[in-house]
Write a structure and sequence with these properties.
Elements lengths: L1 H8 L1 H21 L1 H5 L11 H17 L5 H29 L4 H19 L8 H19 L14 H23 L11
Helix pairs in contact: 2-4, 4-5, 5-6, 5-7, 5-8, 7-8
Length: 197
């Protein structure tokens, strides 16, 4: 376990992870391109969910490479990486069921988004998140759900359009679970990874 955590702190590994996440972020914004073109300007920050989550993690990794912690970005990254990582996996599995198959991009999205959920958790022992940071991340995440399912700015999965109310309900509870996971790993006293003040 000590060697594993040493690997996570290795600068070459951090650089590789930074480059992968930066590339994934750019690809994600491109993937949302057609929807963003139709989105009112006031909603633009809340539409590209997954690439924004990976962008938060890019800031986290950049801080690590600088020998720093940026705890607000850590909280935002942890909550949103897990939430949108799991969300996209579930949506693509549902698409597979409804359409009886997926294009190759669907399988790529399942793998990459599952990796998103995992990487945010792997670095949790190194975060310096406090209650105020998690509170801001929680407000951002739940507000995003309102934008998605009240103002109907949710990511477009056309084959799942008839299930939007159920997806919205699932998404809200996934947000709550993601916030709870962040609290469990970073704020609940476990004694395993003491935090610096």
């Amino acid at each position: 376990m000590v060697r594993f955590y040493a690997l996570l702190q290795n600068r070459e590994f951090l650089w590789a992870l930074l480059l992968v996440n930066a590339a994934g972020t750019v690809y994600g914004y491109i993937w949302y391109g057609s929807q963003l073109a139709e989105t009112p300007a006031r909603f633009l920050p809340f539409v590209p969910d997954s690439p924004t989550a990976s962008l938060f993690f890019v800031f986290v990794l950049t801080a690590f490479l600088l020998g720093k912690n940026w705890p607000l970005f850590e909280a935002l990254a942890l909550v949103t990486l897990f939430k949108y990582g799991i969300w996209a996996v579930v949506m693509n599995i549902l698409t597979f069921i409804v359409e009886d198959g997926l294009p190759w991009e669907g399988y790529m999205l399942i793998a990459s988004h599952l990796a998103m959920a995992v990487e945010g958790l792997l670095y949790a022992p190194f975060y310096r998140i406090r209650g105020v940071h998690l509170a801001v991340a929680a407000v951002w995440t739940l507000h995003n759900d309102v934008i998605d399912y009240v103002f109907m700015m949710y990511p477009r999965y056309h084959s799942l359009a008839e299930y939007v109310p159920q997806i919205g309900y699932f998404t809200f509870w996934l947000s709550m679970v993601s916030i709870g996971i962040a609290y469990f790993f970073c704020l609940r006293k476990t004694g395993n990874f003491p935090k610096e003040n």
